[in-house]
Write the structure tokens for this entry.
Amino acid sequence: MSKNFKPLYVQVAEKLTAQFKEGTSPIQKPIKENGLPAFVAPVNPITGKGYSALNAINLALKGHDDPRWMSADTASFNNYQVKEGSKGTLINFPKKNEIQAVRRPDGSKIKDDDGNTVTRTVEFDKVQNGKAFLFNATQIKDIPPLAEWLKATQRPGDLSPVEKAEKLIRDSGAVIVHGGEEAFYDKIKDEIHLPEIEQFDNDTRYYQAAIHQLAHWTGHESRLNRQMDGNLGSVKYAPEELRASIAAMLIGAELKIGHSFGQHPAYTGTWSKMLKDEPFEMSRAAADAQKIANKLLGREEKREIIQEATLNTSLSKGEEIPYNGTSYKVLDKKGRNFEMEKADTGEKFKLKPTDKLFGNLIDARNNPASQEMELTAEQTHKIGR
């Protein structure tokens, strides 16, 4: 059991950084050695719901071929059992309330006539960072085989991956200009440029390229209005390229058409440095990628299991955040930067969203409980008993 558990965005940033250097990340290497997709959309097989981008990436980095994930409690409730010694994988979700035991003044729990603990639902003033540990189907006994589950979830008359991609492109309303040798998005003209479909190795490659450029297309000021500074291939453009690559991976998994990294391997070095210097950028990139995927897939941002609200990833004037034995007060916000004061020393300083302290304060504010633990299957089963 390890305490002081690293925040999820730090874990994902570190794993991806290591894989970027090795060239083995699911973004760079869409197909595994066994021929299966490197990234599949993780899903709870009981509810049929998926997981938001940061959680989905963390689950996928475990390398399982089976996309089914659930908590130990969910497994137990459905007469499955987590295999002994299995370790859970962390996910985060926004939490507005919590069920707590009703206690007496001395701290003991109040029981009802049947001996069950009396509970109450406590609403939080601010959305907090909920945590859960999930287990893959390969870690669970008695769960139906994947092939059997996939057959049961197939719907008659469902569109093929290519047909789904065609519909997504058509529904977007984007202007697509065919011709030339390169695939790119012209943010000035608000046009996507693609080579003719015959110039690609196959139809799938064409639609993968189109989806990637559609991800960039969503950044226009009339749509999601992202910062898209710099020219294609530049260091300034690298954050946008990371968002589009993650979004294309999410959408490709959803449509079952996969994704292609394209001709941008030079970005991985910049991404590695960016995530090493500022791990919280992983959280921002994943959140933006989720917005891109939601927009292009035509759905509201309600995909996350148990999700009721979006976590606040910025600071507000007047806010005080306890962190690392002291407290930090937000005195003012000027542009994208913040004027801060450290309570114990009265020191005033400026804080940028790219500073490491910014991410630490956001995490401390959203997740007041700083002591976390890694749960094994046995420990998870004990929760709630």
Q: What stands out?
A: The radius of gyration is 23 Å. Residues 106 and 282 are 44 Å apart (CA to CA). DSSP finds eleven helices and twelve strands in the chain.
